């Protein structure tokens, strides 16, 4: 439910000006109470703010072209400023131009590769988020200094091309090889929703320069039942072996308000000690279109060298798990090879 930005309108009226652009304010409040447990290391109840955000959009038709912009900020509903960066444009923020030939965007936003997981993303920013398995290789990022071209949708098909120049305020010597290239083709027609994407990440992040292929698909068998599938291949480097990630899931609408969800994923690494599995089931109740509550249970099992947990703080969640104290350094570190589980009760309000 989007609202006109009343403050801007009042300001314009007070100054004697009128707003030609269509200005909106929107956002999300997403909170949960979670029980997190890693065997022999930690268990306890935490509260989490899960990618809660507020944003502003403006759009104006100039006849030959439509100009639009967005500024979006993530915030922490529960713990205040100690876990926030203080930056304003922490999420998708850009300016763009659109006409019959396509769309151009410039700014900071999700890459086509990142958004390509959408058709199979059943538990985004919740316990059981697939990024617990997919983000270990340096992908699923929001790039700074990006330009993107989107084609018009034609018979359900759309092509998206993005290029990120570098990720610092100034392009110094260390940024010269920090470019990223991302491309996707999406298809939405009838019962199908699918995406195929490729990304080449040039920046040396300690894992070496990497590329990856991603495929996600959803099919609406009947109005009450949807199936999803996911695949990702990450190429090898001098430092890391290749990895393959597979996933299958489904949703079932028990009633108009109640939906059951489930997903199972496996990560097969070139180093078998880093193999991991994750399963998650959940139930969601839509009180009204903008308001929902849910309950999820997720479990992750790890090889001797893997540290996957069903909660993924890089996906916008604020709560995590305490590590085990390292006898050598005295610092808390995550312990590989331990299984973990989580139970979550959440509330999400979109406005």
Description:
There is one protein chain. By secondary structure, this protein is mainly beta. The protein has one domain (3-350): Porin (Beta Barrel), CATH 2.40.160.10. The protein is built from three helices and 20 strands. The strands form two sheets. It has a 16-stranded antiparallel barrel. A two-stranded antiparallel ribbon has the order 18-19. A hairpin with a 2-residue loop joins strand 10 (180-189) and strand 11 (192-201).
- Unreliable sequence segments: none
Strand order of the largest sheet: 2-4-5-6-7-8-9-10-11-12-13-14-15-16-17-20
Structural class of the helices, strands and pairings? Answer: mainly beta
Indicate the CATH class: Mainly Beta
Helix content: under 10%
Content of β-strand: over 45%
As for the CATH topology, it is: Porin
Largest sheet: 16 strands, antiparallel, barrel
CATH architecture: Beta Barrel
- The helix-strand sequence is EHEEEEEEHHEEEEEEEEEEEEE
CATH H-level homologous superfamily name: Porin
Distance between the termini: 5 Å
Counting structural domains, the number is 1
What is the count of β-strands? Answer: 20
Rg over CA atoms, rounded to whole Å, is 21 Å
Number of DSSP helices? 3
Average pLDDT level: 86
Instruction: Based on Cα principal axes, name the global outline.
Output: globular
Keywords:
351 residues, 16-stranded antiparallel β-barrel, 20 strands
Report a brief summary of the structure.
The protein has helices at about 5-15, 110-115, 130-135; strands spanning about 5, 20-40, 40-50, 55-60, 65-75, 95-100, 100-110, 140-150, 155-165, 180-190, 190-200, 210-220, 225-235, 245-255, 260-270, 275-290, 290-300, 325, 330-335, 340-350.
